[in-house]
Amino acid sequence: xxxxxxxxxxxxxxxxxxxxxxxxxxxxxxxxxxxxxxxxxxxxxxxxxxxxxxxxxxxxxxxxxxxxxxxxxxxxxxxxxxxxxxxxxxxxxxxxxxxxxxxxxxxxxxxxxxxxxxxx
Length: 120
Hints:
By secondary structure, the chain is mostly helical. It has one domain (6-117). The protein is built from 7 helices and 2 strands, in the order αααααααββ. It has helices at residues 6-15, 25-37, 40-48, 50-57, 70-78, 81-85, 87-102; strands at 104-106, 109-112. A two-stranded antiparallel sheet has the order 1-2. α3 (40-48) packs across α4 (50-57). 6% of the residues are buried. This is MULE transposase domain-containing protein.
């Protein structure tokens, strides 16, 4: 088990190619919180609006879905009225989350792989 450091994951994978690398939920939340703190407007709303905080917390909770359902779960969240209404405001955060954890998928084709792959 490692934290969300790509270099550490790559190193362990190269040293132990037959091992299964698992990442820690605590470190996922930690990286998530760091990204929220980079955007003062998102950080302010997160700290002052309980509904906003609850809805944003749904993104990292996708980790509790079966791996095959994560992309569908993410797509369903993005169609929720909250995420539609706040789409422009949350765009920098979406880009980060999508690039880092989801990747780009069209149908069955992966257009680009996320930094941290969804384990199946």
